[in-house]
Amino acid sequence: MALYMKAAEILDKVEQKKGAVKTLVYESKYQNIKQLFALVCETHKYSSVLQEIIDSTSFLKETKLRIHLAKVLAYDLLIGRGVKCGGTWKVMMMKHRSRLQAALARIKIKRKVSRNEDLLPSGFQQMQGDVIPRFVRVNTLKTTVEDVIDYLKREGFTYQGTASRLEDLDRLSGKSFLCDLHLEDLLVFSAKMDFHNHFLYKAGHIILQDKASCLPAFLLNPPVSSHVIDACAAPGNKTSHLAAIMKNKGKLFAFDLDTKRLSTMSTLLLRAGVTCQQLANQDFLKVDPQSSEYKEAKYILLDPSCSGSGMVCLRDKALEPQEDKRLQSLAAFQLRCLNHALQFPQVQRVVYSTCSVHSEENENVVSACLQQNPGFRLVHLLPNWPERGHDPFKQCLRANPAKTRTHGFFVAMLEKRSLQREGENVLITTTLPAGGEEKQDIQQSSAPDEEQENSETASEHPTNPGSKKKRKRNRKKTQNLES
């Protein structure tokens, strides 16, 4: 009963665009997060079909249920694994089962389909083919990749080595697994593998985190003992990743305005063995960059609130007018956060990321920020990554199920430019992600006189004398974001 009440509450907020499913589910503190997340996502996918069934049977009038509660109950009864509650609700649903099933059958006949999946809107039907593997990040604060692999092999899992290409991930089945081809502390399993009740997960030795979500901390790659800011930190997976990269040394300042989310995050970090964090229930926009507390903060990870449109279960269709207004509001907030991050006097690198597929929240925000902060430029990230930012922001990364086998995501890294003072070149020293070609490429893009970097980023900055028209267009975009 509690499951359906909570699912209905979250579904209502999702359909009113008050937050992403993942965020709302974590905030709920429901005991079985996975079960709640699945029920909300699946009901949301079939929402229009369920609405049609409910309307055609006068179900609401006879049961006096609210629409979102009726939808989650009808989903489990007709499409899911059966109603999981007992008592009067179960009796009520069994009483109306035949009528609801008949309504579903009539809809299938009308649309000339035989499967429930064929009733989904086209956007969700395409999504059905986007099977994302189960990614498991090894928490190196508590164990090693080698030890986790050995442990799993003793449990009957089959280790197939390190993936050499993305297609290797598609062939995973049963208890076979691989080491990811980009992130060495990431293991990859078939999509059906579940670790929520596994000892390694409960003990904090592994973190269940999508690969795209691992990219921001991996690319920021703060040195051991550095001072780092995680600006919008909850629910904490990226924070724990940063702490692991820092080897729990230095200081990790983590901010979040939501008290409940911060409480959830505190529990997660405790389980992960993180000790270098300083949590603050505070709005990042109100943090004083000039405070002596942050005088050594050189690395900032900014993953602000966004539309969540990259989450597979929330794949959206064409933007409606009200959604466009919401995106503009989100983008304005994201731009303020990114501009604020660049005000910290010692900051060298800022990674900006979203789980959104919309340019309004991604390339447009980065473009406006660079216009307002000519002292920073983009770093060309992972040149072999298969999905790049939209033109002209090829330095940035995008992710999606089809091309990267992940949820939809966007990552950009802004680096402080070399400063010329009285004829002297001052080069900002940074720590680079390890790994062959990627390291070499990033080093080249950081060089103050690099011709390739200049040609790639010239149109983004107001210092380019040959881009007056583009500067006018970008100023208009910036004004729209700020309004």
UniProtKB/TrEMBL annotation:
Record-linked InterPro entries: MeTrfase_RsmB-F_NOP2_cat, MeTrfase_RsmB-F_NOP2_dom, NSUN5_7_fdxn-like, NSUN5_RCM1_N, RCMT, SAM-dependent_MTases_sf
Q: Does the keyword Iron apply?
A: no
Where composition is biased (Polar residues), the residues are: 455-466
- Name any one GO molecular function: RNA methyltransferase activity
Q: Any idea where the SAM-dependent MTase RsmB/NOP-type domain is?
A: 124-417
What family does the entry list? Belongs to the class I-like SAM-binding methyltransferase superfamily. RsmB/NOP family.
PANTHER family, per this entry? 28S RRNA (CYTOSINE-C(5))-METHYLTRANSFERASE, NOP2 YEAST -RELATED NOL1/NOP2/FMU SUN DOMAIN-CONTAINING
What is the protein name given in its UniProt record? Answer: SAM-dependent MTase RsmB/NOP-type domain-containing protein
User: Which source organism?
Assistant: Triplophysa rosa (Cave loach)
